[in-house]
Automatic annotation (TrEMBL):
Keywords: Signal. Residues 1-20 form the signal peptide. This is Secreted protein. The keyword Signal applies. It comes from the Bacteria. Gene3D superfamilies: ABC-type transport auxiliary lipoprotein component (3.40.50.10610). The lineage of its organism: Bacteria, Pseudomonadati, Chlorobiota, Chlorobiia, Chlorobiales.
Amino acid sequence: MFKYLRIFSFLAIFVFVGCASPTIYTKPEFSDVTKSHRKVAILPFTVNIDSKNQSKDFTVEMARKAEKDEGYLFQQQIYAQFLKQQSKGRYTVDFQDVEYTNFLLRKGGITYENIMNYTKSDLARKLGVDAVISGTIKRTKPMSGTGAAVLGILVGYWGSTNKVDVSLNLYGEKSNDLLWKYDHEASGSVGSSPERLAKSLMKGISKDFPYKRQRN
């Protein structure tokens, strides 16, 4: 009996970590500053994988490639989620197609590796938009497949195995001031993906995104 209680207590910790409340900041003057905004671009995400938790076979080069690949995947998935919300008439702005965003970045000599050398307002001007959304994702390596499988078999629950910290930031074209920030901590289960994380994020963001259209 006590053994099962310990197991369920352990699972409860996982559940609470996965449901941590987001931290949100909105610039007090947001409505005045953004009243003329019509289009927003989503930049490739910056992804940081904790190298300390990787296997010895996972080289630095492999880590950098994985980070870059995931950065573009998250950009695409967040864009897809925003489009779903926008198609329902929930926002006052449109979102620039990410393929076009990346085309303009490449055309301007801006790469995943050097994009941090530009201010967000510079990027917004180069992309011809009123604001840009940038994102940072920090994640750890999931526990081993065997460990996760044992946990799932014991109680029929596939517990969280990968801590993920996500930060979305919104900057305007006219200044480099932070207009809105959304910080979220999640725990991805075995087989977690950019799509799953994006959907999870959007559940919270859709309620608090500052461009949300006011209902009469």
